[in-house]
Specification:
With about 100 residues, the chain is an alpha+beta fold. It is built from three helices and three strands. It has a domain of about 70 residues: Ribosomal protein L7/L12, C-terminal domain/Adaptor protein ClpS (Ribosomal Protein L30, Chain: A), CATH 3.30.1390. The protein has a three-stranded antiparallel beta sheet. The protein is rod-shaped. The model has no long low-confidence stretch (mean pLDDT about 95). It binds L-tyrosinamide.
Length: about 100
């Protein structure tokens, strides 16, 4: 007689859990040297903002010291912050974008 078919014990702890990736803020830092127009240009180019949005974000950083630009997955946030900072560096400006995880 064939051996009985014993069903495999369902595995635990390996169920396909789907979690949202943690999101990262891109933060614009104020400085005393970068021209306002240049900050607006970088925000429009790298973050696809309208003139209006870019101007508001620039002025918020100018007045308060920092402004959250947008949130992305970690990879995208770091790439965009790096590219935006590099655009400024190429023109000799100290403008800085950083990233930080959302709570
Ligand atoms: N503070 C700069 C100036 O007065 C303009 C500026 C705004 C720079 C926002 C950086 O994130 C910034 N020329």
């Amino acid at each position: 007689v064939p051996p009985p078919v014993v069903p495999a014990r369902p595995r635990t702890g390996t169920a396909a859990k789907v979690e949202r990736p943690r999101l990262y803020k891109v933060i614009l830092l104020n400085d005393d040297f970068t021209p306002r127009d240049f900050v607006v240009r970088v925000l429009k180019a790298e973050f696809r903002m309208s003139e209006d949005q870019a101007h508001r974000v620039m002025m918020t950083a100018h007045r308060r010291g920092v402004c959250v630009v947008a949130v992305f997955t970690r990879d995208v946030a770091e790439t965009k912050a790096g590219r935006a900072t590099d655009l400024a560096r190429a023109k000799g400006y100290p403008l800085m974008f950083t990233t930080e995880p959302e709570e």
